[in-house]
Amino acid sequence: MALQILLGVLGGLGLFLYGMNLMAEGLQKVAGSKLKRIIELLTKNTLTGIIVGAFVTAVVQSSSATTVMVVGFVNAGIMNLTQAVGLIMGANIGTTITAQLVAFKLEDIAPIVVGLGMMLYLFSNKPKTKQVAEVLIGFGILFIGMGYLSKAVKPLREVQAFKDLLVSFGHNPILGILMGFALTVMVQSSSASMGILLALASQGLVPLTSALPILYGQNIGTCVTALISSIGANKNAKRAALIHLIFNIIGTVLFATILVIPIRTLVVSLSPNDVVRQIANTHTLFNFINVIIQFPFAALLVKAVMLILPEEEGEKDINKVTKYLDDRILQTPSIALENGIRECLRMGKLARNSLESAMDGFFNKSEEKVKETFEKERIVNELEKAIINYMIKLSNTAMSHRNREMINGLFHTVNDIERVGDHADNIAELALVAIEKDLPFSEEAIQDLKKMYTKVLDTYKYSLECMKTGNIDLAFNVIKMEEQVDIMEKTCRTNHIYRLNTSSCNAESGVIFLDLISNMERIADHASNIARAVIDASKYE
Question: Between residues 496 and 451, which one has the greater pLDDT?
């Protein structure tokens, strides 16, 4: 019988987790555009963070995933600890959704929901409809798994020793808390461990007095994933994970001592004859009340972790090349994509600075500026590798068709920006030759170069701006500017030939001049490619 129960629990739990993950993936695809806008919301206050944290967790169906993502944000320097507190508190609220859904006992209609989802998925060609279908299929499988889980533990009602063990947790809450903690750590999901608890309660195996300490232990156990994730991250990321742990420990102490009787009385009065609903309601109350109590003391939580993990002199971020990329954020693909775009823009700005240094080195005969270009180009190359590797990982996650097309475009854009850096490097080498040989350039040649350089730089700047804002009109303007650069390049060549014929230009200087305008023209071409990628991406809006 023991083996049969074990296999039944594993099978039911597997279906439960698969359904939850499928539903979460579908929700992320449906809410992709909303999740992208979270980046702007993260810059606001702690209260906004709570709302955002609750929303994201309701979508990804895991407070652990949200908290791991927060650790990634902090590690990437996107948010500070004060902002992280809000998201962590919100994540605890958002995770109550799963328990409330499971408590409704919808196992009987679950096959109908799966069937409806499959019909929508198979007979619709619209991406949005397919995404909604995935949510329905995941939702149904989740409840089918819950049904199997409840049936699997049903024989345990005949095992008196097991029932006595569970009842004992009501008399010894510390053991119950440890049990809930251990269970959550083993399955690496507070929602899954909550599902097991509710399955046991549905068969009358767990009285409310025993379920409450187990539930509190589960809230502490869910912190372990973020703590493990913070290993290898910077100290601020470790502090974010520690805030999550302290927050739940304080809540557990309050609910296991001062609030234990009031909460138990309240949930029993709300659902007198339904232990499953009592447990789900306690879970919801625990997280809401815990947030309400600790929200005014968010700053003190930050101070507490700063005392536990004090700031050291010379403390540095471990991310030496990238700023916005962190594998932890891949758990939420739409946000990870937004961060990839931000890192790409950062790379684009560095390539622009490299071009400015190269041309400054040429015009002012500055070897120092030329060397700056070489160093910036090295970083641009490292960024290209890091972003490409990140995009490859991101492309293997579940996401909407629109986001997948954006990733495909981003691969090309990263390459275009890297090529801009290469051309800046070429210009720097030409400047170095001109400086070392002290080559003369006519005033007319310098003026032609300055005019073309100004137009090329503006073209490239605007291409990055339209990539940042998604402004289609600006993107078309960049393409027109690139065409103007082509005309300027031809004019510069014509003028150069005239100067050669009139002996007003040095032949060796003329070779440098032609290479300079050729490299600048190619930079404008890459700027045009970036703008075209923005236009192509707009087709999937």
Answer: 451
What is the token pair recorded at 521?
């023209």
CATH of the domain at 401: 1.20.58.220
CA atoms of 178 and 243, how far apart (whole Å): 20
Most confident of 17-31, 68-82, 166-180, 283-297: 283-297
Among candidates 137, 144, 136, which has minimal Cα distance to 107?
144
Tens digit of each residue's pLDDT (9 = 90 or more) over 27-74: 777 666 566 566 556 556 777 888 888 888 887 767 777 788 788 778
d(CA 506, CA 508): 6
* DSSP string over 20-71: HHHHHHHHHHHTHHHHHTHHHHTTS-HHHHHHHHHHHHHHHT-HHHHHHHHH
Residue 111's alpha-carbon distances to 19, 135, 428, 491, in angstroms, are 12, 14, 67, 72
Sign of the alpha-carbon torsion through 364, 366, 368, 374:
positive
| Within-domain flag for 370 | yes
Task: Please name the amino acid found at residue 493.
Answer: R
Q: Which amino acid is at 187?
A: V
Residue-range definition of the domain harbouring residue 273: 1-308
- 264 and 384 in a single domain? The answer is no
Rounded to 5 degrees, what angle do the CA atoms 229, 39, 99 make? 60
Amino acid symbol at 148:
Y
Q: Which amino acid is at 370?
A: V
Residue 317 has what pLDDT? Answer: 46
Q: Which residues, 6+ apart, have CB-to-CB distance to 408 below 8 Å?
A: none
DSSP result, 310-330: PPPTT---S-SS-SS--GGGG
Cβ-contact 481, 462 below 8 angstroms: yes
| 283 and 215 Cβ atoms separated by less than 8 Å | yes
Q: How confident is the model at residue 319 (pLDDT cuts 50, 70, 90)?
A: very low
Residue with tokens 């420990």: 249
Reported pTM? 0.72
- Share above pLDDT 70 across residues of the chain, in percent, rounded to a whole number: 94
